[in-house]
Structures are given as C-alpha cells and as structure tokens.
C-alpha cells in the first residue's frame, strides 16, 4: 500500500476554544479560580461525582493510566491540578 502524505493535519487544540481567548483577555492573575471552581468539602469523599465538577465543562484532567475498558466503561486514574483519582 502506498504511503499517503497529508498536506494538512487536522488540528483541534483546547487552546483555540473561544472561552479561553475571552478569559485571557481579562488578564486576571487568579484566572484559574474563576474558570475551574474548587470542590466543596462535603464532596471530597467522591470528588469525581461532585456536581461542581460534573457541571463544569472547563474542568481539565490528565489521564495518568488506563486500567481496563469493559462494556463502554473506562477504568483509569486521572489527575487534575490538586489530586489524583481512580475513576
């Protein structure tokens, strides 16, 4: 099979999202606090189920390790800016 060279690669960066551009124009030094709210103390037992986390489309996490995929359920550990969770 011949190798195909694509002249243009699709590029979908999170940094191109319009809400980030709007937020950066404000030049707020504590910008992260207004974009990603803290998890309430009562939700710290299961932070991945917190209503603040689930309702916020701007909550960034990094998948640190995949463990299993079973019946469309992904088992992995994730990390945000403060804690690491097993989901």
From TrEMBL:
Alphabetical GO biological process terms: telomere maintenance via telomerase
Protein name: Telomere replication protein EST3
Gene3D superfamilies: 2.40.50.960
Compartments it resides in: Chromosome, Telomere; Nucleus
Gene Ontology cellular component annotations, sorted alphabetically: chromosome, telomeric region; telomerase holoenzyme complex
Described purpose of this protein according to its UniProt entry: Component of the telomerase complex involved in telomere replication. Stimulates RNA/DNA heteroduplex unwinding which favors the telomere replication by the telomerase.
GO MF terms held by the record: telomeric DNA binding
Predominant place of localization: nucleus
Entry-linked InterPro entries: TPP1/Est3 (IPR019437)
Annotated ranges, domain Shelterin complex subunit TPP1/Est3: 16-86
Family: Belongs to the EST3 family.
Record key words, sorted: Chromosome, Nucleus, Telomere
